[in-house]
Amino acid sequence: MSKITLLIHCPDTSGIIAGVTSFFHGQQGNIIYIDQYVDRENKVFFMRLECEFSEDLKLDRLKQKFGASIAEKYEMTWKIASAEAPEKMAIFVSKYEHCLYDLLGRYKSGELEVEIPLIISNHDKLQPIAESFGIPFYHIPVEKNRKSEAEAKQLELLKKEKIDFIVLARYMQIISGEMIEAFPNRIINIHHSFLPAFAGAKPYHSAYKRGVKIIGATSHYVTAELDAGPIIEQDISRISHHHSIRDLILKGRDLEKIVLARAIKLHLARKTLVYNNKTVIFT
Amino acid sequence: MSKITLLIHCPDTSGIIAGVTSFFHGQQGNIIYIDQYVDRENKVFFMRLECEFSEDLKLDRLKQKFGASIAEKYEMTWKIASAEAPEKMAIFVSKYEHCLYDLLGRYKSGELEVEIPLIISNHDKLQPIAESFGIPFYHIPVEKNRKSEAEAKQLELLKKEKIDFIVLARYMQIISGEMIEAFPNRIINIHHSFLPAFAGAKPYHSAYKRGVKIIGATSHYVTAELDAGPIIEQDISRISHHHSIRDLILKGRDLEKIVLARAIKLHLARKTLVYNNKTVIFT
Amino acid sequence: MSKITLLIHCPDTSGIIAGVTSFFHGQQGNIIYIDQYVDRENKVFFMRLECEFSEDLKLDRLKQKFGASIAEKYEMTWKIASAEAPEKMAIFVSKYEHCLYDLLGRYKSGELEVEIPLIISNHDKLQPIAESFGIPFYHIPVEKNRKSEAEAKQLELLKKEKIDFIVLARYMQIISGEMIEAFPNRIINIHHSFLPAFAGAKPYHSAYKRGVKIIGATSHYVTAELDAGPIIEQDISRISHHHSIRDLILKGRDLEKIVLARAIKLHLARKTLVYNNKTVIFT
Amino acid sequence: MSKITLLIHCPDTSGIIAGVTSFFHGQQGNIIYIDQYVDRENKVFFMRLECEFSEDLKLDRLKQKFGASIAEKYEMTWKIASAEAPEKMAIFVSKYEHCLYDLLGRYKSGELEVEIPLIISNHDKLQPIAESFGIPFYHIPVEKNRKSEAEAKQLELLKKEKIDFIVLARYMQIISGEMIEAFPNRIINIHHSFLPAFAGAKPYHSAYKRGVKIIGATSHYVTAELDAGPIIEQDISRISHHHSIRDLILKGRDLEKIVLARAIKLHLARKTLVYNNKTVIFT
């Protein structure tokens, strides 16, 4: 039994759902999940579909047929992927350990179905954690005027390990355009505020100063503009005047790790689709 | 332009989605929304679909065709309804006014697309509110040993006004089996606890006594077993030891009115489907 | 039995709590509630205290004594108020009715212990609602180049009715500096976003465009800078890509009315204290 | 500089706050925090106070004086503790690792100011995790008819290591009365439901079957009655019909670890006070 996941967006018109479902039915596939959405303002159709094939599936052949018939007819941007193949995830960290501990704990207990070939950091502080979980750790310092050098080393490692996507688990460095182009909508960041409030540095300090009654965390795909990429997931926590900046930072940690983990799971399940700098999150 | 809503459940098998969508495509319909779900444990398929027809739609003819072809083939329990026809809602109240004010305010401001031909109460306390909103109010006292008499009067009124569904907006009486049979999955109650915790009378008192840190409200369809019907919507609110029973009651009011209104909106949009004493809530 | 509420802030030093509590003990008062907070960063002490007196209380005398002894010693900014006297609240509205319906429903059912001598609006659309609840309604149009004229009329009415504080229940006009000075920290606004995100006009449109996964509402005291006053209360609601701008507006209504009502209740209970453009909210 | 924490409950009467604060003022203490609460129904007074002493504090002497004067006068149940001394926490686990990973990650990063002298388990599955964090792990199997033997070993270890309190981090065994008596209100459990709903075994299965729209987790002190002890903290997460039992279990894990950690932090900060099988949680 093989299972594939299909993600589509295309101009909205009539007959798409019937066309797509008939296609898979005709290929002896059993559609076990379909979720669809139409952005009426921009007249765009979105769909996610899971389909099972009982015989040995020729994935390339299926892709070719789908591309030549349905996809072309409806001018689709589309992607068919085998649902079984685990993706390879790289984790970038700096000095904060809470997201790293959380991700590695989930990984070890089988909650995250992913491979983690490497952890990259601009500091060596978290190396012992990586080691205690048995994950290779690469310390690549980022010096002020030699950022591109560091990034070249990172890219080389990512390429060598055939990394599919990158998670910035409180990696406190700005990602260059070159890296973003190499991993379009495949770099997931966790920002420690309820975006678009408090973008940029020291959001807990700003939240404290403004006197908000709720803080948040936001996981998003990284784009060229800082903290402005498509939002995958957000969550919040109530605070009061009793909370010092240090309290906000501590409370925020829990938000950050939960929100980041949820975003990664959505990405792994191929339930995220980016369009117009926003995400469609399928159920 | 006519729009219909289709709700289905049937034994899960392959080809249903393709079959249904092809049917509507063949009838020159444009499917504008589809949401589907499979209960894998019980092998049941669920679907909600909205379809637009540009020509004058013969609804009866469409139903007949669908019934004779797709529905029969897949042994479906199904319902096709015109999405335009507003439903007729009766409100039952006792002495608490917060849900009534909330519903009538939403109704008057056009937020609830529904007709409200009547309000029924076992007390006359809220009659002035009904009058100030211009809704007919019927005071039908419920005496201990003459409940069936009162209910006969209620049923007569409901029949006369062709009521589609009933909302118990803190109506503090138990509904008889006869009434429930007359409106199966069409009586919506709001219970002032996070069910199944604190079913029955005085849930805020029980919550206070137990020392919970969160209270809730639950809207559900009424079934023969008290407070045990299919849950449509729930929400919660944090409390602390500072809150007295009276505080819980006050905080709970806001929960009750919001949760009840959400449940009514889901029902009106035909986004609820009951199966196995649970609801499928389509997005 | 008389009850008073005391609000204090002053430079932090040792002995304040003992000093204050001993004072009230010495006046035969029974302290039934005390909540205190120290802003360590700015070295400011805050306190709220409720005290009961069994004999006939001479409020003026108590104030005088407190002022001359404790308040002077610790350089306090302070306020003693009789907890029984209901405050007079004016409501300002434009064309949106949901907050108005909600406030008047709470008022009529005795949930808001307040007097509402008048409703002021720049439109006449909501006059029938005011009338159905029996509250005087004043239609004071605000014309572009004659805003000060309209505001003079408003101020005259507010003065005549001895209004204590103003609630802007989705009043879509900017409040002038003169009005703010006349009611310092006594004008409560509801803004339909999670401030500081999406300050200014059309926040739901901006939230939709940004693709946030959570929307919010914020109630704050009005200050000269638009949507930048001390925040009293905030709350949020989850959304998804399925929600159109219209959906956000509808979902937001529930947030707005709940958050505004909570803020008003806190204000009425004298549980809010403004300092440094932030609020201390006592429990 | 020394800091103490005082927890009190006693019959409510007038003058307690003034009495207590004057006492500490008289001892040259600086009260830096006070939170008080009166249960009016049962006429009980509760207080938590933090006080700093600039000179070398004689803790025993302070306790003696307080006991002989204030505590006796007001018939207080009270406890004064040095705020600096870290407590010793034992962790009990079975086979689920998510709470253990979470607690140890927090411990290692300095978030939990506690000592963890040992982890006890009825299985050896999680031994490698304990080892990777450098914490002694004791495998004490619990056989059906020899439970008291296992518990005797546990008690011996706990005594030897001078354990202050126990955390049941998804320890799937019922705790005996003897153990509970040895650690009254000092055994913290995490139950994977929103108590009192779904007490006992397999709460996620029950939640799925009932069709609730929200699941929860509850941390409470262990008492003789199963899952009925004083609740310290609860939180919830929204679910839908899409979630299978496995999904609930996965979503629940995040709730469990967050709620348990919050409860432990409250306990460590001595912000919990048990009375009448409920908790007062100070801010």
Key descriptive features of the protein:
homotetramer, 283 residues, alpha/beta, Alpha-Beta Plaits, Rossmann fold, 2 domains, seven-stranded mixed beta sheet, four-stranded antiparallel beta sheet, 34% helix, EC 3.5.1.10 (chains A, B, C, D), Formyl_transf_N (chains A, B, C, D), one-carbon metabolism (chains A, B, C, D)
Topology order of chain A in helix (H) and strand (E) letters:
EHEEHEEHEHEHEHEHEEHEE
Number of domains of chain A: 2
Distance between the termini of chain A: 23 Å
Chains forming the largest contact: A-C, 31 and 31 residues
* Main β-sheet description of chain A: 7 strands, mixed
Strand arrangement across the biggest beta sheet of chain A:
7-6-5-8-9-10-11
Which structural category fits the helices and strands of chain A?
alpha/beta
Counting DSSP H or I runs of 4 or more residues, the number of helices of chain A is 8
The whole-angstrom Rg of chain A is 21 Å
Helix amount of chain A: 25-40%
Strand-residue proportion of chain A: 25-35%
Number of strands of chain A: 13
CATH architecture of the largest domain in chain A: 3-Layer(aba) Sandwich
Spans of at least 5 consecutive residues with low confidence of chain A: none
CATH names the topology of the largest domain in chain A as Rossmann fold
The coarse overall form of chain A would be: globular
Mean pLDDT of chain A: 95
What oligomeric state is this? homotetramer
Query: CATH homologous superfamily of the largest domain in chain A?
Result: Formyl transferase, N-terminal domain
**CATH class designation of the largest domain in chain A:** Alpha Beta
Protein name (chains A, B, C, D): Formyltetrahydrofolate deformylase
EC number (chains A, B, C, D): 3.5.1.10
Function (chains A, B, C, D): Catalyzes the hydrolysis of 10-formyltetrahydrofolate (formyl-FH4) to formate and tetrahydrofolate (FH4).
Organism (chains A, B, C, D): Christiangramia fulva
